[in-house]
Amino acid sequence: MSAAAILLATTGLLAAGGLVESLSHRRRLTQIPTRVHVNGTRGKSSVARLIAAGMRAGQVRTCCKTTGTLPRMILPDGTEYPVFRPARANVIEQLRIVEATVEAGAEALVIECMALIPYLQWLCENRIVRATHAVITNAREDHLDVMGPTEVDVAKALAGMIPINGKLFTAERDHLGVFEKVCDERGTKLIPITEEDVAKITPLDLVNFPYVEHAENVALALRVCDDLGIERGVALQGMWNAKPDPGAMTAHEMDFFGRRINFVNGFAANDPESTERIWNMALERYADVERRIAVFNCRVDRPDRSHQLGRIIADWAPADYYVLIGSGTYIFGKAATDAGLDPLKLVMAENRRTEEIFETIIELSGRSSLAMGMANIGGVGLDVVRYFANRSTQTVFK
């Protein structure tokens, strides 16, 4: 047989194999009648977990897959397993999640969108998930190198995962017009979460979470659960009892040889708006401390995020020190000083080990301090959170 004939035969076999796999995947999807696809700039993992917890509490056998701080597969009994990745993250892993959901006998799947590139967002929805319920938490300035250059472009990119003939729930308000246009084109019902919906989430509703949860996230998750026929009180109870994402905002308070140190994990908030909001929340809670230390975990592969935060940090409520950890810290430092931040307040701790970062924060703390981690949970960020959590006298922030 000639080389050309062998190549032609091999190509034909691969095409046939791909068609068979595609048909098998479509059959699996029909065995999962409720498919909730969650996307957005901030809060995807939290909202996915909240929706799944509410559905489980409503006696719906639900699997959930998040790609937040640590990728996790959550089974119908609430058990969590890490998602195995032999190489880098790839959207094809969503096929395995659908297969695992069918094997678990689940009737619903809540799955976080893991794509950033606009055409991949469309591919994930139209070819892999085919959601009955889509969720876009919000559209803010993040990953501008992929979805930008503006916030409107981010909204347009996220709109790629809006399903055909489904439902879209969103807490986004500034770019509803973008979503409305796409929904009209695809025959999908747009269900926005209003300020009135958020106002119905009371302080009593939020205080029962063992971490900081945002009213917008809870309102959004409850609206999806309501559409699925789950009573509000039942869904809320399930959400309160659910395990949070490892990147959820918590505070770890400790007494270190007479020094009172309060470390707030805000690493998972990575766009400027969300980050400033939680910085102000932390300042309000710990208003009586002697020192305020902002810890920014930089990543050399996320230069846009470092530049974004650096150029606006001088306009925020001030810290006494700005500790830069991780990699590529010079990008943040240059942007911050160019914007008017006092360079003497910058503490460069690039590529330091976790224990060295801890010692740096201790040295800067005085008798009492607030230290808050921001920008990126990946890399050394999660290690720093665990280091403080393991040494704290209590974990709070209700």
TrEMBL record:
A Gene Ontology BP annotation from the UniProt entry: capsule polysaccharide biosynthetic process
Name of the protein this chain belongs to: Poly-gamma-glutamate synthase PgsB
Gene responsible for this protein: pgsB
One example GO MF annotation: ATP binding
Coiled coil residues, start to end: none
GO (cellular component) term, any one: membrane
Gene3D superfamilies: Mur-like, catalytic domain
The Mur ligase central domain, residue ranges: 38-156
Database matches in InterPro entries: Capsule_biosynth_CapB, Mur-like_cat_sf, Mur_ligase_cen, MurCDEF_pg_biosynth
